[in-house]
Write a structure and sequence with these properties.
Length: 296
């Protein structure tokens, strides 16, 4: 946990970043919870970058201000809660000197049991979470905002998600609560390999044709196997970059993450982040130094 409170004249500066693991029952379905609260900081913008995680954000004190969605057809707006699928272009988030909330990293493997739909239904878009989850999202949002500390907030989210998982397992809804086992194996293998596996090899491993793998992957997760591999590799690269923001060795990073060279890394950042690695570091440096390693 990183936290700081500084009195600046009449304004109190707050900068908190907390990360927690979900309940054991959610292992493999939820990666982590990131809690954040910032006040009295300069206006900035944050890039919500492509990653192998669906994003669920429940705000605390003010809504999330989306300046641009991964889908350019999406209109800017204010989001008290936000649910986003896998994507290959960044979202732009306006931060007017303050923001607060809990971000939940959801595995696409947990989309059916926790959200009631496959991750492919959310491909490339951000939506109000209650548009998908209804009153259930509004109720947990109210309980979260009433909680008085990070452990209590994370416990609220734990209880809510475990409850949704149990209800999904016993419900006789319109879809299965788990993806096909071949799709699960393919996703886990692709992530375990850091995105370094050929599509034909992945298909052979799970016993599907490459064409069938392509169609089922898109339907289940929202990205083709090739696009998902790019996102996994990019996500590893930018997380490594965030661990050494003041001494970036981009050529070494490219080699470590399996890119052909630094130019290849630069091209992937331009395509997936909309900027160069150096520009991203310049934008996120203060957040990274404060412990806000961007989760998306």
């Amino acid at each position: 946990m990183v936290t700081g409170v500084v009195d600046i004249g009449t304004e109190v500066r707050v900068d908190e970043a907390v990360r927690a693991a979900p309940a054991p029952a959610l292992h493999g379905l939820v990666g982590w919870y990131s809690g954040y609260r910032q006040r009295g900081l300069p206006e900035a913008r944050h890039r919500g970058l492509p990653s192998p995680w669906l994003t669920l954000i429940l705000t605390l004190d003010e809504p999330l201000s989306i300046a641009a969605h991964p889908d350019p057809a999406g209109a800017p707006g204010e989001y008290p809660t936000l649910l986003g699928g896998l994507h290959t272009s960044p979202a732009l988030i306006a931060v007017p000197g303050r923001q607060s909330g809990v971000q939940i990293a959801l595995s696409p493997l947990g989309a059916r049991s926790l959200l009631g739909l496959p991750g492919g239904a959310l491909a490339g878009i951000d939506v109000h979470a209650d548009d998908v989850l209804g009153a259930d999202a509004r109720e947990v949002h109210e309980r979260l905002r009433a909680a008085t500390g990070w452990p209590e907030r994370f416990a609220v989210v734990d209880g809510w998600l475990v409850g949704r998982q149990l209800r999904g397992a016993v419900a006789s809804g319109r879809i299965s609560s788990v993806p096909p086992p071949e799709a699960v194996h393919a996703w886990r293998l692709l992530v375990a390999k850091g995105g370094h596996i050929r599509v034909d090899s992945l298909a052979a491993e799970v016993g599907w044709s490459a064409r069938h793998l392509q169609s089922r992957f898109v339907a289940e997760f929202g990205l083709s196997p090739k696009a998902a591999a790019r996102v996994v590799r990019f996500d590893l690269a930018r997380r490594l970059l965030a661990t050494r923001p003041d001494r970036p060795d981009l050529a070494g990073l490219a080699a470590d993450c399996g890119y052909a060279d630094q130019s290849h890394l630069d091209r992937e950042f331009a395509a997936l982040a909309g900027c160069s690695p150096s520009a991203w570091l310049a934008e996120e440096f203060r957040n990274i130094q404060s412990g806000h390693h961007p989760a998306s």
